[in-house]
Amino acid sequence: MVKKHVVRLTDEQRAALEVRFTRPLSLRQRNRIQVLLRSDAGEPDPDIADELGISANTVANVRKRLATAGLEAALTEKPRTGGPAVLEGKGEAVLIGLACSTPPAGQARWSARLLANRLVELDVVESVSDDTVRRVLKKVRSSRGRRRVGASPRG
Are the beta carbons of 35 and 59 closer than 8 angstroms? Predict the structure, then answer.
């Protein structure tokens, strides 16, 4: 198979990569440096992928980023934006208040699903999953069995 993006490193780039490799790096950064150095040496993608424990597509993508965006882009990741927070500020405060209140009739305590449904009923959010409710409540240091009951951390 013919490589679309061939790696040809200058002596300065190769030296910079070798120096960078001696510093503390994440596994992804180490793998990217190895991919570039081995591709420059002429090793085939499947061999590089097998030795590093990554996929051949990853090897091709690193080579492509070097060719299209340069050395720094090939070694670093683009920032990941993630999704916007469903509950923040007022929504979290309402959730914590609900969790600390008495549960609905017929229930011994609030479940994450009950809290999620109640937040939707109160028009705090349009929709929310019970996993989001669990994640928000996990961040809160609160226990109804403690002497100091509350949703805010000690401070």
Answer: yes
Rounded CA-CA distance 83/38 in Å is 36
149 backbone dihedrals φ, ψ, rounded to 5°: -95, 135
Percent of the chain at pLDDT > 70 equals 88
Q: State the alpha helices, DSSP H only, in 22-111.
A: 27-40, 45-52, 56-69, 71-75, 90-100
Q: How high is the pLDDT of residue 129? A: 92
DSSP 92-138: HHHHHHHHHSPPPTT-SS--HHHHHHHHHHTTS-S---HHHHHHHHH
For 33, other C-beta atoms within 10 Å of its C-beta total 19
Angle between helices 90-100 and 112-121 (to 10 degrees): 130
What secondary structure letter does DSSP report for 76?
S
